[in-house]
Amino acid sequence: xxxxxxxxxxxxxxxxxxxxxxxxxxxxxxxxxxxxxxxxxxxxxxxxxxxxxxxxxxxxxxxxxxxxxxxxxxxxxxxxxxxxxxxxxxxxxxxxxxxxxxxxxxxxxxxxxxxxxxxxxxxxxxxxxxxxxxxxxxxxxxxxxxxxxxxxxxxxxxxxxxxxxxxxxxxxxxxxxxxxxxxxxxxxxxxxxxxxxxxxxxxxxxxxxxxxxxxxxxxxxxxxxxxxxxxxxxxxxxxxxxxxxxxxxxxxxxxxxxxxxxxxxxxxxxxxxxxxxxxxxxxxxxxxxxxxxx
Length: 294
What we know:
The chain has 294 residues and is α/β, with parallel strands linked by helices. The protein folds into 2 domains: 8-234, Rossmann fold (3-Layer(aba) Sandwich), CATH 3.40.50.880; 253-292, no CATH class. The protein has 7 helices and 12 strands. α6 runs antiparallel to α7 (280-292). The chain is globular, with a radius of gyration of 18 Å.
């Protein structure tokens, strides 16, 4: 499948599906792609297989897509970077209410090891991982934060045999303001690794998953449920309600204080006006969005 620029629609019964419309960037392996489709469709999602990460240039239509899954597993070493146009398209897509989920080696490539995804990096909720990874089996994820969507249908911890593509897992550390939903049993020195990390980015949401996802994990019932939950959570952005910075579904003082924290920290999520940078224009733009509500 490598080299294809065609988008292959593999969804069935879309009109009946209660879940999200998901675009999975191809792994370049038909068996793994098919299992992504089967796993997510079993949970009621509609799935389309798109371009590979190294060929994604924004030409895949994102209108009507709730969540994009950026896989970096089987074809992790096939390209040096995603085209700038594709990264820019994903940044705009998430900022305007879309959801993004990444699996490894996306964060590994974005760290000191390769330094890919420089344009996309501000959207990602984990710190760049550098070269900190491991090859181990099994892996255990443990719930670190109670969340009715991300934890739905799961026990307090799940243990699974991870897929290995020259390694199995990166050390993920949440950025300030990001949520570590599941911790991992991957600890490097005194640094606790996380299995699932997410945050709100403007009107959308972004999730990092620490492992390389392939046929083993997609066939694991608990891990497959976790992927579906991550899709549901990522699809719950606030398009049309940009002042809802907390993702609660409305605008209230929690959002106002969240904005003030972003503004003081010069966090890019406080950039509510054109022109770049964080200044009083952004403050007044946020106040207008706050007054408009949802």
